């Protein structure tokens, strides 16, 4: 081995091997030609890919903006629905109060009507009782006068005059008795 090493030491390391140089140059030129021919297609493909990515980002941003807008519209509609609900609830409360007030007024009017009808009925009953009592008093006073006087009061006009006179005297005596009590 020492002999081989010595031989390699004397050989020129910088010497060009033309067969390797030619093959390398041809390979380099082929690769350069392929790259030169493929470079526009490669850049076009990269540009298209970049456009797709940017378009996708833009579409995503647009979709997000639309979603935000739809969300905002939904919130506004929801708030409007809450306001309408509150308004309807307020209307219902007002209607309930109006119905209650109307029913109360109707009940009071009906109560007044019943009281007035009862008062009218009481007054009619009092007048009827007064007339009935007056007739009975007249009959009793006629009978009493007939017994006292001893004459018959068969004539209606005479009897009526006697009854009226008796009742007037009775009312006057009651009025003076009430005046004394006061």
What can you tell me about this protein's structure?
The protein has 182 residues and is an all-alpha fold. It contains three helices and no strands. The chain has helices spanning 2-10, 18-149, 156-181. Helix 2 (18-149) packs across helix 3 (156-181). The longest helix has 132 residues, at 18-149. It is rod-shaped, with a radius of gyration of 66 Å. It starts with a helix and ends with a helix. The model has no long low-confidence stretch (mean pLDDT 83).
Shape: rod-shaped
Low-confidence stretches: none
Provide the succession of SSEs: HHH
Range of strand content: under 5%
Into which percent range does the helicity of residues fall?
Answer: over 70%
Structural class: mainly alpha
The total count of strands amounts to: 0
- Rg calc: 66 Å
How many helices? The count is 3
Overall average residue pLDDT? 83
The biggest sheet amounts to: none
Compile the SSE list and pairings.
Elements: H1 2-10, H2 18-149, H3 156-181
Short descriptors:
3 helices; 182 residues; mainly alpha
What's the quick description here?
With 182 residues, the chain is an all-alpha fold. It is built from three helices and no strands. The chain is rod-shaped.
């Amino acid at each position: 081995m020492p002999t081989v090493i010595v031989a390699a030491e004397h050989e020129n390391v910088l010497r060009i091997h033309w067969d390797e140089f030619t093959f390398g140059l041809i390979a380099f030129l082929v690769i350069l030609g392929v790259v030169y021919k493929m470079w526009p297609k490669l850049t076009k493909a990269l540009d298209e890919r970049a456009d797709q990515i940017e378009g996708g980002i833009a579409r995503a941003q647009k979709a997000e903006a639309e979603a935000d807008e739809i969300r905002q519209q939904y919130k506004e509609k929801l708030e409007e629905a809450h306001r309408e609900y509150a308004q309807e609830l307020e209307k219902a409360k007002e209607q309930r109060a109006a119905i209650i007030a109307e029913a109360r007024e109707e009940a009071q009017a009906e109560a007044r009507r019943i009281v007035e009808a009862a008062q009218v009925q009481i007054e009619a009953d009092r007048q009827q009782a007064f007339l009935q009592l007056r007739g009975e008093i007249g009959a009793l006073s006629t009978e009493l006068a007939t017994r006292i006087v001893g004459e018959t009061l068969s004539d209606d006009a005479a009897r009526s005059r006697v009854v009226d006179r008796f009742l007037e005297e009775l009312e006057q005596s009651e009025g003076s008795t009430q005046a004394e009590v006061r």
